[in-house]
Amino acid sequence: MVNENAGEIFDKIQEGQTSIFVDYFNLIQQVSEGEGADLKRELDQNQKETQEVIQAANNLNQQYEEAVNEKEQMKADFEKEIAQLKKQLKNSDKENKRLLDTLIRHSKGEDLSKVNKQEEHAPGSAAAIFKGTQNRKISGPVGKTHTRQLTLKQLKDIINDIYQQKVKYDQKCEESKLPRETMEQFMYTYLN
């Protein structure tokens, strides 16, 4: 015995289930479309922020490399300048020693012509310097020259005074932006 009402009931149940599934599918589709748009916006925002961070990191890296290169260049320039100053200092020390020897010999009243014969005539030696000055012709009247014997203390005082006056003169030249004189040139100025 088949109940005709039962067939209708099953048809209504099937229609109800179909309606529920269609509504459920539509609801899921609406939710996923709304969340998908939010997720896409969030993903776009994250990508934009990532690009900005990468750009900032690249800028910082470039600035760092420029600073390192500038530091290396400054270091090389500094080392080059130090080498030049050491060379100048070495030459100045040699010149000072030669002139000091010459001044000592001159103050003792040694005959420089004998010294010239005994020493080798190296360019720039004290003997060569004084030989060159002796051979110069002096214009104007030449009077009697008086040789003066100095004690060792007097000689040291004169030498120290020459050094002190040279330092002061160099400072004046630097302030006036004039070239500095060598110790030999300054000694002629000082002794005159």
Residues in helices, as a percent range: over 70%
Q: Treating each run of at least 4 consecutive H or I residues as one helix, how many helices?
A: 5
- Overall SS class: mainly alpha
Count of beta strands: 0
Distance between the termini: 152 Å
Low-confidence stretches: 115-122, 124-130, 132-138
Q: How big a fraction of the residues is strand?
A: under 5%
Average residue-wise pLDDT: 78
Can you write the helix and strand succession as a string? Answer: HHHHH
Radius of gyration in whole Å, from Cα?
Answer: 50 Å
What is the 3D shape? rod-shaped
Largest sheet: none
Helices, strands, pairings?
Layout: H1 4-108, H2 112-118, H3 126-134, H4 152-176, H5 183-191
Architecture overview:
Helix content is 81%, strand content 0%. It is built from 5 helices and no strands. It has a domain at 149-192. By secondary structure, it is mainly alpha-helical. Residues 115-122, 124-130 and 132-138 have low confidence and may be disordered. The longest helix is centred in the first third of the chain and has 105 residues, at 4-108. 2% of the residues are buried.
A few lines on this structure:
The chain has five helices and no strands. With 192 residues, it is an all-alpha fold. It has a domain at 149-192.
Question: Can you tag this structure with a few keywords?
Answer:
5 helices, mainly alpha, 192 residues, single chain
